[in-house]
Amino acid sequence: MNTLSLIAAGLVLTLVLERIFYISGLAAYSYYLTDRRLKGFANYKWQNQLFHAKLLTAKSRVVPAPTPHALNSSCIYNVTKTPIRLKAVVPDGVYWSITFHGRDQACYFTLNDIEARKKYGSDVEVVLTKSKRLHQAVGNEIVVEAPRLSRIGLILIRTIVMDPSNPNNIDQVREVQRKAFVEAVA
After folding, report:
1. What is the per-residue pLDDT across 63-116, written as a single tens digit (0 to 9) for each?
2. DSSP tag of 137
3. Is the pLDDT of residue 4 over 60?
4. What does DSSP assign to residue 158?
């Protein structure tokens, strides 16, 4: 091999290694930031429990730009040891959704009220596991596998109150919100 070939091979190797380190660094930093954000949630210490927030308004600043008139429920999940089951009731006449977010901040599962009613009816059960081989679906259960590096993440249930000036509407949606819960799968 001549000197020019060695220099070219060295440059190519340098560029390939630079890309690998760059992408790995971005991924690691993303996971680090998400872990910090998750630890900032009040319910981080109580993993695999669903917490129900109060009605958001335009003045709420828990998030930078909250969806007005939303009732949110959140759960910091941890499926490293055991799968969990989320049970929820799909409300009538309002927007409702469940989203699962991994440590890389990606949303890897979502289900809204229209799709849920069409496929599963008014009662939804989602089993989150680290491997689909660990749990076989029973009945209408939806089995979701957490991404490999996201055994800890966030579940968010959003319900939009259509008429926040109507206390009955808010109470109905809160009742549906309270029926949602997370439990360990035996």
Report:
1. 555 666 788 898 989 999 999 999 999 988 889 999 999 887 789 999 999 999
2. -
3. yes
4. E
- Domain chopping of the chain, boundaries: 1-40, 43-184
pLDDT at 17: 83
Q: Which CATH number fits domain 43-184: 3.90.230.10, 2.60.40.1610, 2.30.30.100, 3.20.20.80?
A: 2.60.40.1610
Closest residue by Cα to residue 174 from 186, 156, 157: 157
* Residue 104 tokens, joined: 């890389």
Burial tier of 127 (Cβ tally within 10 Å: 0-12, 13-18, 19+)? buried
**Rounded Cα gap, residues 184 and 127, in angstroms:** 9
Q: Give me the DSSP letters along 81-118.
A: SS-EEEEEEPPSSS-EEEEEE-TTS-EEEEEEHHHHHH
> CB neighbours of 180 closer than 8 A, spacing ≥ 6?
50, 52, 73, 86, 87, 88, 89, 157
Q: Which helix (H) or strand (E) holds 182?
A: strand 181-184
Q: What pLDDT, in 10s, does the model give residues 118-173?
A: 999 999 999 999 988 888 888 889 999 999 877 888 899 999 887 777 878 888 88
Q: Quote the distance between the C-alpha of residue 55 and its chain's center.
A: 20
Rounded to whole angstroms, the Cα distance separating 144 from 146 reads 6
